[in-house]
Every structure is written in C-alpha cells, then in structure tokens.
Amino acid sequence: MLPLQLIDSFLLEYNVGQALLLVFVLATVGTLPLKSQKIVALNATLFGVIFLLTPQSLVPPHYMYLGIALLVVGPMLLTTANR
C-alpha cells in the first residue's frame, strides 16, 4: 500500500486530465493481453464519456476534444469487432 503523501506529491505536479490520460493508457495496455476488440472499444467509449464529463475548470479544453474523439472511435471499434 502506498502512503497518501507519495500519491499526493505525485498528483500535485499534474492536472486531472493528465492523470486521467495515464489511467486510460494503463487500462488500454491492461486490456491488450485479453485480445478482445470489444473490451478495448468499451474502454475507449467509457473514457470518452469520462473526459467529456470532467469539469472544464479542472482540465484544459483539449481533453474535451480527446473525449469526443474517443466517443467516435469507441463505437466504431465495437461495431467492427468479431462476435
């Protein structure tokens, strides 16, 4: 278990958008060994919603555009996934 001071000192240097982007990348890398395009698509769609719903006072506006892009790419990946 990490002490809270270590986590706090890490997060003070970055904004919420950068922390969410790191979690998105780690979650995507974590789903790759499953070799399921549906899970990757659902992950992208979920983080698209998260990036869009994050208040703009906490993150720069370009994270909203990332959320819109993920909301477009995610369903396209889901529809092209094999059953």
Automatic annotation (TrEMBL):
Residues 1-83 form the DUF8006 domain. Keywords: Membrane, Transmembrane, Transmembrane helix. InterPro entries: DUF8006. Signal peptide: none annotated. Pfam families: DUF8006 (PF26028). It comes from the Archaea. The chain crosses the membrane at residues 12-32, 39-57, 63-81. This is DUF8006 domain-containing protein. It comes from Halopelagius inordinatus. The lineage of its organism: Archaea, Methanobacteriati, Methanobacteriota, Stenosarchaea group, Halobacteria.
